[in-house]
Amino acid sequence: MVIKKRCLLWDWTNTANLPHAIEKINFSGPLCSVANWNAWAPPELKARLPFRPTVRGMDQLTDSNEWAMISNNDHEMIHFFNEPERAGISPQKAAEMWKEKMVPLRKTTGKKIIGPGCASDPGGDDWLEEFMSLVQAQNEPPDFLSLHYYGPDANAAIRYLEKMHAKYPELPVVVSEIASISRDKKEVFSFTAQLANWMDQCPWVLEYALFGCMAKVADDFVSPEAQLMNSDGTLRYLMHKLMNEQPMTGL
Questions:
Q1: Which residues form the Asl1-like glycosyl hydrolase catalytic domain (predicted)?
Q2: Distance of CA 218 to CAs 3, 111, 209, 226, Å?
Q3: Residue 1 lies in a domain
Q4: What DSSP state is assigned to residue 113?
Q5: Among 27, 35, 80, 162, which lies 20 to 30 A Cα-Cα from 43?
């Protein structure tokens, strides 16, 4: 039986520049959902997988059009904030907006809210700890713990995920971004296979997203070898393995 835990991180620029590329995606394999760091669903998705809208920052809460896209839809789960500690949003402000906007939305619609996805560094961990203490004091924790991880070592990645789960054991985990940053192709494939196979079998990981399906490398930090798409929109070998193979193998 296919285990469906893999989220497709479909970059928002694909919608304008390469919408046809999505037709090469295997929607009947291990993929379970799609996210694009935005409130709006990619029209080219055509509802072939569940979409996870993202409250990326304050704009999605304060702009009426953005909030309408977040609140008026049939999407089951919503991401709340993407690396807010790097966007100048304090844990206190985030908890305030959580209480004002997200808690009422959850109560009126039954939507599940994925907590803030912070970077896996001391700044991100400290921000998340403060936010979680504030919303737990409200007695309104998120439904899922969101985690990010980038690094070259698969075992270190697993240790980090286990550490964070042990800190918040009552919350299932959504790994909303993860990837190897090694520049060595074989190492990237090995990292991806080891993590995917481990997360597929991990009972407290709900779903996970490999970064990322986009035509251009996002920045100098992420590895070109971890890209899932070429600049012309064709899918790379790693993407073919991710959407078809279970268990995954390296090179």
A1: 36-238
A2: 29, 30, 15, 11
A3: no
A4: E
A5: 80
Residues 37/249/152/230 CA torsion (nearest 10 deg): -50
Distance CA 151, CA 157 (A): 7
Angle at 251 between CA 208 and CA 10, to 5 degrees: 35
In a domain, residue 251? The reply is no
Provide the residue type at 28 as one letter.
S
- CA–CA separation, 233 vs 67, rounded Å? 30
Domain that holds residue 97: 6-244
CATH at residue 207? 3.20.20.80
SS3 89: coil
Q: What is the residue type of 70?
A: I
pLDDT in tens, 88-111: 999 999 999 999 999 999 999 999
CA distance 30 to 243: 6
DSSP string, 22-64: GGGS-TTSSEEEEE-SSSSPPGGGTTSS-B--EE-STHHHHSH
Into how many domains does the chain fold? 1
Q: Residue 109 domain-assigned?
A: yes
pTM of the entire predicted model: 0.98
Q: In what order do the strands lie in the sheet with 54-55?
A: 54-55, 77-80, 112-114
In a domain, residue 250? The reply is no
pLDDT digits (tens, 9 = 90+) for 120-173: 999 999 999 999 999 999 999 999 999 999 999 999 999 999 999 999 999 999
- How far apart (Å, rounded) are the C-alpha atoms in residues 96 and 171? 21
